[in-house]
Amino acid sequence: MSRINAQIRKVSSILEDNMSIPNYQRPYRWTEDNTRLLLEDITQSWKEGKSSYRIGSVILNNTDSHLHIVDGQQRITTLLLILKSLESNAGTALRDSLQYRHSDSQNAIILNKRFIDQWLQENIGNDKSSFEKYILNACEFVEIRVADLSEAFQMFDSQNGRGKELEAYNLLKAYHIRAMESNTFEEKVSCDITWEGAARYQTDEKSTSVSNLLRQLINEQLYRTRVWSRKEEAYAFDKKHIREFKGITVNENHPIDFPYQNRELMQYMMQNYFKSLGVSVNGIKSRFRNISPENISPFSLLNQNIVNGKDFFTYTETYIEIYKRLFNPEFEDMKEFKKFVQKNCKYDGSHRDGDQYLFELYKSLIILMFDKFGEEGIEKYHQTLYLLVYRLRLEKEQVRYNSVAKYPAESEFFNIIENAKSYSDLLPLEKMANKNVICKKDVRAVIKYFLEQNIRLESADERKVNLKNYSFA
Fold first, then answer.
1. Around 5, how many Cα atoms within 13 Å sit in the side-chain half-sphere?
2. Sequence-separated (6 or more) residues with CB below 8 Å from residue 306
3. Are 375 and 287 in contact (CB under 8 A)?
4. What is the mean pLDDT of the segment spanning 328-339?
5. I want to staple 147 with a disulfide (CB 3.0 to 4.6 A). Which of 3, 156, 176, 217 is the partner?
6. Are 399 and 393 in contact (CB under 8 A)?
7. CA–CA separation, 55 vs 139, rounded Å?
8. Which pTM value belongs to this model?
9. End-to-end alpha carbon distance in the chain
10. pLDDT (average), residues 420-426
């Protein structure tokens, strides 16, 4: 019979255990972002006066006189560093006994200790004693002790293996529902239903296929667009990036910390004021010409700062609906644009990875343009945006993920759209779109479109791309 014992234990208690890091364990490699997230989550719980905060689980292999850490080394080590920075005596014996043999561990410990010192000084100040007590007495782990090492590894795999661990976007749901302290149970349920509905989206009632529109939207069109708009390279969205969608919590238990957050507070107050009126507000400009769907907030902006809780769910619901109406054929909106996408983005061979990377980039640009200038902006600029994106298909023999991640940051066209206040501010996009193209890849549909737009094309190698085959070249 297996011997497995699980219990909830306070940090003060678990740090008294005689734990050790076995040789098979990976190095300590938490980054500043990992450390910041832990500090921010504990601090928010502490400021809101919550009686407990669950840090996570730790799996220990109970053998001889030691408890070998199978899972949880990163969090335990970081907690020990935080307590050391707080000048706490708790965990001193464990901190002195743990051995980190790998140079990566030693380097990460030095860097994170330096970061924690600075973060605590800026965010905790003179309240270190109170913060220390909260960590020790309110923060807790689910401790799982397993006698057999093979069972410990099986449990580790079930905790962290494929298909078991929550994806990053779903961690956001839990985080923001926790922030809805002042909302009713019914409002929380409504947010959960809408969220899960987008995660299991059916294009129509007759269709049996289900797609995860929520993952698509957050991972691609929301996260990467926000990063590209700051002229930064945007790679895959994962847990270390969830801070992008964490903001301030507005309630009586959680006053804002800094003056720059007044803008988010004003946004929150304004939205709730208009909602309380229960009437349409004169002067509001709809993104669509002929419709104003109730689940599209006129006040949500793609690059807005995040207010935690209900406001975040309003934000995601808005862009789920916008995405559906822009790109899904079930909706009647913007038929001519959808025909353009079908013809020019879904050509023969567009199923390849590189072509899909470009299509996601194009959709992100389209959503940002729609966000700023609505349906009219798409009508005016969808061709220009196509030329900006799909020139990469011709200029590179292979379109790689890294190339697409870097390209918008280097070209700055997201930033141009984000900062534009009129169509005249978008003229730099047209200049970039009309530049000559040196072709290294023969993609017939794309070449034909570029030639139809009178873009000058040259062949880098006529054996690979022979433009003479195009009668109007």
1. 7
2. 245, 246, 247, 248, 264, 312, 315
3. yes
4. 90
5. 3
6. yes
7. 7
8. 0.71
9. 77
10. 96
Q: Among 198-207, 244-253, 350-359, 370-379, which stretch is predicted with the lowest mean pLDDT?
A: 198-207
The distance of Cα 103 from the centroid of its chain, to the nearest Å, equals 31
Q: Which residue has the higher pLDDT, 195 or 229?
A: 229
The pLDDT of 223-241, averaged and rounded, is: 94
3-state helix, strand, coil in the chain (%, to 5): 55, 10, 35
- Return d(Cα 143, Cα 6) in angstroms, integer: 6
Distance CA 151, CA 156 (A): 9
CA–CA separation, 373 and 105 (whole Å): 49
Closest Cα partner for 32 from 96, 114, 152?
A: 114
For residue 449, give the nearest of 396, 372, 383 by alpha carbon: 383
Predicted local distance difference test score (pLDDT) of residue 157: 45
User: By C-alpha distance, which of 149, 135, 160 is closest to 62?
Assistant: 149
> CA-to-CA distance for 143 and 336, rounded, in angstroms?
58
Tokens encoding 9: 């234990």
Length of the chain as a residue count: 473
**CA nearest neighbour of 185 among 310, 315, 318:** 310
pLDDT given for residue 49 in this prediction:
86
Helices 353-395 + 310-327 axis angle, to 10? 70
* Beta-carbon contacts of residue 57 (< 8 Å; ≥ 6 apart): 71, 72, 141, 142, 143, 144, 159
Of 362, 342, 339, the residue nearest 221 (C-alpha): 362
Nearest Cα residue to 191 out of 50, 54, 315, 322: 315
Q: Do β-strands 53-63 and 19-20 pair in parallel, antiparallel, or remain unpaired?
A: unpaired
Question: Does 362 have pLDDT greater than 80?
Answer: yes
Place of tokens 């706490």: 88
Measured in whole angstroms, the distance separating CA 16 from the mean position of its chain's CA atoms is 36
Lowest mean pLDDT among 65-79, 177-191, 276-290, 338-352: 276-290
d(CA 59, CA 46): 25
Pick the closest to residue 436 from 394, 470, 408, 471 (CA basis). 394
Domain boundaries, the chain: 4-165, 171-333, 338-469
One DSSP character per residue, 188-209 reads HHHHHHHHHHHHTB-SSTT---
Give dist(CA 23, CA 17) in Å, integer: 19
